[in-house]
């Protein structure tokens, strides 16, 4: 029987799953995903996690609880950096230790460090280390990594063309637009795990689509554009997400076809509170474009989300109907 590797359907699952899945399957392991996020998963996570943690980390804990007894290994890499000269949120670096110290009866964790700050070639080194959990055949690991990069490249290319990762990962393509109004292009800035987990964001993406919006996210913006725009800041941003969020905000401002911008942030997230403020100031100073900030935490109510989305979309449509005196800030 194949060895089972468990991957929690949370955090960087939304960014790297095609890479991880191909890699593990090429090494003849069976990949087992936790269930989709639910209020039960969130409750379990909240009970086992420190109260100060952000919502995405609490959900991650719940996914670990959901899957830990069904697999031989749990894949929780220790992410330090995912891009050259940049860091990511330190919670990712501490995640394997936080999980080990708060959840009992875990299977062995694959907690290899992923640190691309000095060189993106370190990804290969990490892949070799992970592969050695399952085989001594270095060539086999090399091949698995090569195939994984191909799958990842295909996934990223689809996203750059405008397909949402959640549509690929959750197989939800061809969502029908329910509104009879003209389509609006709505740019949404946020972490992958907030944008594409429909439980965390209370189905925000589909709700916007039903109201006649086409969604454009940070992940669809070309890396070169992000780099160039983030480089305009007086000081280099050392957070990967920060430069992506700021760089894409500037890009959305430059585009004439964007009808409104939403910043989706996590309550209690240090990176978001800083980056959102920076992006908001730039947006408000540069262009009279409809913009709102939506904050997610475990107490957020769906009715509140619905009301804000309705008001935001109505405001955009009213402004197009010659009511430009309607405030762009909701
Ligand atoms: S970046 Fe923010 S939302 Fe993401 S894990 Fe860190 S604190 Fe949580």
TrEMBL record:
Pfam family membership, one: DUF2229
Domain called DUF2229: residue spans: 4-221
InterPro entries, sorted: CoA_activase_DUF2229, Dehydratase_Activator_Redct
PANTHER family: BIFUNCTIONAL PROTEIN [INCLUDES 2-HYDROXYACYL-COA DEHYDRATASE (N-TER) AND ITS ACTIVATOR DOMAIN (C_TERM), BIFUNCTIONAL PROTEIN [INCLUDES 2-HYDROXYACYL-COA DEHYDRATASE (N-TER) AND ITS ACTIVATOR DOMAIN (C_TERM)-RELATED
Name of the featured protein: Activator of (R)-2-hydroxyglutaryl-CoA dehydratase
Species of origin: Acetivibrio straminisolvens JCM 21531
Classification lineage: Bacteria, Bacillati, Bacillota, Clostridia, Eubacteriales
